[in-house]
Design a protein that fits this description.
- The chain folds into four domains: 152 residues, Aspartate Aminotransferase, domain 1 (Alpha-Beta Complex), CATH 3.90.1150; 226 residues, Aspartate Aminotransferase, domain 2 (3-Layer(aba) Sandwich); 184 residues, 3-Layer(aba) Sandwich (Aminopeptidase), CATH 3.40.630.30; 171 residues, Aminopeptidase (3-Layer(aba) Sandwich), CATH 3.40.630.30.
- The two termini are 27 Å apart.
- The strands form four sheets. Strands 15, 16, 17, 18, 19, 20, 21, 22, 23, 24, 25, 26 and 27 form a 13-stranded mixed beta sheet that branches. The chain has a seven-stranded mixed beta sheet with strand order 4-10-9-8-7-5-6, with helices on both faces. Strands 1-2-3-12 form a four-stranded mixed beta sheet, covered by helices on one side.
- By secondary structure, it is α+β, with helices and mostly antiparallel strands.
- The relative contact order is 0.10.
- This is Aminotransferase class I/II-fold pyridoxal phosphate-dependent enzyme.
- Keywords: Aminotransferase, Pyridoxal phosphate, Transferase.
């Protein structure tokens, strides 16, 4: 396993959104020549609208429309000047009304994204720290990343995890200020920030300051509709800043920052980056916002809030009577119906659209891939009969979609970490039998080797060797569990075979080297910092095609679903935090299936192999290289071959074993591009006692005692492959004797001498291997995590280290 390439995040988002768009549930266009808020037209069909964020329906209020049109008539479509110079006349009215609403100084911004970009760099000092809730809105995270080059410490905690927050506060306690940034209401699940408890922490730690993005909490709750956070706080402490919105439920455009005091207000207003240089709100938006603020300052706002609250409670009551998985039980206008796998989400959205309801698909990166679901929003536009009809449609379609996609409410609850009354389980299909074994010794050798045995180190004998090597070790990272999955039809014909391992991985194995360097420094005090138990196809010791799938079999698709169910049971039984299916080619038939099951596609480092035609010699092989690579061989490899004494050993004494292990550790510690735990020294004993392993050893003739300076640890797959699994080198001789290149060349010569069909060179150093004729292959993996926290935290670290 190896690093995710830098563009993998964007590639994953692109792939998933393209898939959703292809399914007809994303990138849609609304139609029609007018809106009422209650209905929306898509593809010629009028749908009841349950996707708006205008929860009070003010965007359709005639008073706001009239005010917007009057502002255009009086002032034009825009006022193209920076507010730092002059604001158009309506701004003064708007700021006056907003000051009345909040009772605190306010700053109006073009939108919340530009607001965060302007405010956060203005309030956070170089000796400050920022701690992000890992579900805080993207616009907040993006603004914080701009500070990475200024010495500001960026950190992240799991969503609403107060104990973890307090631990991170203590870690950053020497910083001048510690800013915790969160949403008031989270836009996907509709859940709340624990505002009261956070305020208690701020009183306990005076350095702690709270920064809330409360755009989804605006208008529908609180005095004068000032939002969820202020409704909880009652008054604004000097340690708190709140962003509200003039769009969404407010019905206009723009955003508003509420400052706790005049001093901070003046600092931000005087110079706030985009706040200073961006164009100001259009007159129409300001006019509409003034009209909305007047409603917020009247008793009418409470009537509107009550009407919405009645609808929310009605929908809550209806859902409690139906077997639908609602992810968070709250009284916000946002409801999230869990589907788990994207495929289930696609089908439910489509079914609801066909039945006359528009809802939003919740998907990665807004939520983890396996936490796909349907986001339903309730607004004042929705009538009680509409809401009842939607509840009945969910009751009808939800179980049908689950059946179509071979899932269940228990599976969905487990995907979201919700307690389920039953343990993970799966039932064998009447026509297919799933067998799971914990040792290769219980698997028929001919069955295994005929379908998977030619692939790398994991023929039957190789797996037996791995099992013996990775158990009863002192270090937990070197004790692996093996799981062999065999799916056959009723006549014993194999449909799917693979093996999985459960082992401890360093989380940064999927991150750039600079991230690993920082984490390795922290691991000096705690070697298991940022590590996870991973359920992986194959193992950290093996590379290649780890799965056999008989796609000609009529039941292979059903076998895939049974396979996924078996994996989920393993995940539940072992407590694995990540599942990885790996070593797939770029164009593989399983991609669409795995996307639909909630797996992210990532590109791994290229892998290399070298076919060896019958009768080929080293000389004939070199002769067929490109002219440039032949020159490379003649200059950097051939002249140095005579400098070495080359030995092929199967057994080594204890002194040699210690030396070979040190050479291996040299490479392992320097190869942060593939950051794994070091393998145990007992591995060498297991190699020496197994006839399929041998050591290609290079000694330097020119120095006294002919020191051993390089070794290739090679496995002979008796079905035709040669696998140089690991390398060990004395780094003093890397450049002067081109040591690594010589080891590669001697590996090729040895495989030819054994009359083997192919060398599986594996990952990393593809540039060097290509020079000696190796073929380079793009390799991909698919992974699924319990949540996005560690991926986002590592992404935050990567951003810091790139500055």
């Amino acid at each position: 396993m190896a690093k995710i390439r830098h563009n993998n995040f964007l590639d994953t988002v692109h792939d998933l959104m393209t898939n959703a768009s292809r399914e007809g549930v994303l990138h849609l266009y609304a139609e029609g020549d007018h809106f009422t808020g209650r209905h929306i037209s898509v593809k010629g069909k009028s749908l009841m609208h349950f996707g708006t964020t205008g929860y009070l329906g003010l965007e359709q209020d005639e008073r706001l429309k009239s005010a917007a049109m009057a502002a255009i008539d009086n002032y034009g479509t825009q006022f193209p000047l920076s507010k730092s110079y002059i604001s158009h006349p309506l701004y003064e009215q708007l700021e006056f009304h907003l000051n009345q609403m909040y009772g605190y100084p306010i700053v109006v911004t073009k939108n919340s994204t530009l607001g965060h970009l302007g405010v956060i760099p203005s309030i956070v000092g170089t000796n400050d720290a920022i701690i992000l809730d890992h579900q805080v809105h993207w616009s907040v995270q993006s603004a914080c990343r701009l500070l990475k080059s200024q010495g500001v410490a960026l950190d992240m905690i799991r969503h609403n995890h107060l104990q973890m927050l307090e631990d991170r506060i203590k870690f950053h306690i020497k910083r001048r200020k510690i800013w915790y940034m969160a949403d008031g209401i989270y836009s996907m699940f509709g859940d709340y920030a624990p505002v009261v408890q956070l305020m208690e922490l701020a009183k306990k730690y005076p350095q702690l300051h709270l920064y809330f993005d409360d755009v989804h909490g605006m208008s529908w709750i609180g005095k004068n509709g000032t939002g969820y956070v202020l409704d909880q706080l009652k008054e604004l402490s000097d340690q708190v800043l709140v962003f509200g919105t003039l769009s969404k439920t407010f019905g206009a455009s723009g955003a508003v920052l509420i400052c706790p005091n005049e001093k901070l207000y003046q600092k931000i207003k005087t110079f706030g980056g985009p706040l200073t240089f961006s164009a100001q709100l259009e007159p129409s938006a300001v006019g509409a916002a003034i009209a909305s603020s007047k409603i917020h300052l009247s008793k009418e706002i409470y009537q509107l809030q009550e009407e919405l609250s009645t609808r929310i409670q009605y929908f809550n009551d209806l859902l409690k009577l139906r077997e639908v998985v609602i992810i968070d039980d709250n009284n916000s206008p946002v409801f999230y119906v869990g589907t788990g796998a994207p495929e289930t989400g696609y089908k439910l959205v489509r079914r609801l659209m066909d039945d006359g309801f528009y809802t939003n698909l919740g998907m990665f990166p807004a939520v983890p891939v396996k936490n796909t679901g349907i986001r339903i929003t309730i607004s004042r536009h929705n009538q009680l009969d509409d809401i009842k009809a939607l509840a009945e449609a969910l009751e009808h379609h939800y179980p049908k979609v689950l059946q179509e996609t071979v899932t269940s409410t228990d599976r969905i609850k487990r995907a979201f970490g919700i307690h389920s009354s039953s343990n993970p389980s799966f039932k064998n299909d009447s026509k297919l039998l799933v067998k799971v074994y914990q040792t290769i010794e219980k698997v028929d050798k001919e069955l295994w080797d005929s379908n998977l045995g030619r692939n790398g180190l994991f023929n039957w004998d190789g797996l037996l060797w791995l099992e013996k090597n990775f158990k009863n070790n002192s270090a937990i990272e070197n004790n692996w569990q093996f799981q062999y999955i065999i799916i056959q039809d009723s006549e014993g014909i194999p449909v799917l075979l693979t093996f999985m391992t459960i082992s401890l991985w360093k989380d940064d194995m999927l991150s750039p080297e600079n991230v690993s360097q920082e984490l390795e420094a922290k691991r000096k005090g705690n070697p298991y910092y940022m590590t996870s138990k991973v359920l992986s196809m194959g193992s950290l010791f093996t590379e290649g095609k780890h799965i056999f799938l008989n796609e000609k079999h009529p039941l292979y698709k059903k076998a895939l679903h049974l396979f996924i169910l078996a994996i989920e049971k393993m995940e539940g039984d072992t407590g694995a935090q990540m599942v990885v299916f790996r070593d797939f080619s770029k164009e593989n038939r399983l991609q669409s299936f795995l996307f639909n099951q909630g797996y992210m596609k990532i590109r791994m480092p290229d892998t290399c192999s070298l076919p060896l035609p019958l009768g080929i010699t080293a000389e004939s092989h070199i002769a067929q290289l490109s002219p440039r690579n032949r020159r490379h061989f003649r200059k950097e490899i051939l002249p140095y071959e005579a400098e070495f004494q080359i030995e092929i050993l199967q057994n080594v004494n204890s002194e040699e074993r210690e030396h070979l292990y040190k050479l291996y550790l040299n490479v392992q510690k320097n190869n942060l591009g593939l950051n794994t735990f070091p393998l145990p020294i007992s591995m060498l004993d297991q190699m020496a006692s197994n006839p399929n392993w041998e050591f290609i050893i290079l000694r330097l003739k020119s120095e006294s005692g002919m020191p051993l300076i390089g070794v290739m640890f090679c496995y002979i797959n008796t079905l035709g492959n040669y696998i140089p699994a690991f390398v060990g080198m004395d780094y003093r001789y890397i450049t002067s004797y081109h040591l690594y290149r010589q080891l590669l060349y001697q590996t090729i010569k040895r495989a030819m001498a054994l009359n083997l069909d192919k060398i599986d060179f594996g990952m990393t150093a593809s540039f060097e291997k290509r020079k000696l004729g190796a073929q380079v292959h793009e390799v991909y993996a698919f992974l699924q995590t319990r949540d996005n926290y560690k991926l986002e935290f590592l992404g935050l670290m990567e951003g810091q280290n790139k500055s």
